[in-house]
Design goal:
Blueprint (H helix, E strand, L loop, with lengths): L24 H4 L16 H12 L6 H14 L3 H22 L1
InterPro entries: DUF5388
Pfam families: DUF5388
Keywords: Plasmid
Length: 102
């Protein structure tokens, strides 16, 4: 069945679309060079047990989420100068990871 087009169709635009918030590409696509891969950190069985016990409380689903939350709590408690040093170190380590796995 073929599509038919009406040649004498009078179309009116009643409402124009107004852009209220323009999204910048940087808001969507990160310029950061980051790569994610699994790693192992060594902890004692006691530390592991405490992390597991925290996850059993049900606030987080995985041990990874528990550790991420604990790190974020610690970072939030840092002084501004320590936080700046921390972020600089993280950025350096992230760049190193990116370059090593590139």
């Amino acid at each position: 069945m073929a599509l038919t087009h009406r040649k004498n169709q009078n179309l009116e635009v009643k409402d124009r679309v107004k852009v209220e918030n323009q999204v910048d590409r940087k808001d969507i696509v990160s310029e950061e060079k980051r790569i994610t891969f699994p790693v192992t950190i060594r902890v004692t069985n006691h530390t592991r047990n405490q992390i597991q016990a925290l996850s059993h409380l049900g606030t987080k689903n995985t041990l990874k989420e528990v550790v991420e939350e604990l790190v974020q709590l610690k970072v939030d408690s840092l002084t501004e100068s320590d936080k700046a040093r921390f972020l600089e170190d993280v950025n350096t380590l992230e760049n190193k990871d990116y370059l090593s796995k590139k």
